[in-house]
Structures are given as C-alpha cells and as structure tokens.
Amino acid sequence: MQENDKDHLDILKRDLYRPQGTKPLRRSRLGGFVDSSRETWKRTEPLRVADRWLSAKLLKKILWWSFGFFVVMAMVTLFVFYRGRNLVSSGNVVLKITGPTE
Q: How far apart are the C-alpha atoms of 36 and 40, rounded to whole Å?
C-alpha cells in the first residue's frame, strides 16, 4: 500500500470516528437543465403496422384455448384426487436396500 493511500485511509478513519459525527456533504451548485430529448428521440422512420399473423383475433383464440385447457386439466386433477386413483402413493412405493454383509 502506498503512503498516500495510507494517509487517505487515516483521514477517512479519523472523520468517521470523530465525536461530532461525519462531515456534512458539500454540494455543488446546480446548473440549468437542458432538455435534449426531443432531438434525441426524433422518429426516423414511419410506424409499421403489426404483422398479420399477430392479430387480436388470433391472440383471443389462443387465450380461449389456453383457458379451456386449464379448466379441463383442473377437472382431471379434481377427478383423480377425489376418486383415489392416484398411482403415486406411499402404498405403491417399495424400497429394497441391499449391501454387503459383514
């Protein structure tokens, strides 16, 4: 570590642990605000119409099909759960442990 760095750390430590607390922040004066967003965000090309395959009609069909699939799967889940036909249960699992005997 260089001598200058050590002096800087000593100054920071002294300022941190002094009885009055830390030094107040010195703020610089603020200048005027210049809004350059109008020039930066100017439109360089005209707006394009969305592709035909991504229309609202197609998106509605996809939404309804996914909702129907969700409802059917919820019904299947409830049927399997309440009818007791669940194939994964503790009664259907067999553990057999083999190893060398002494």
A: 6
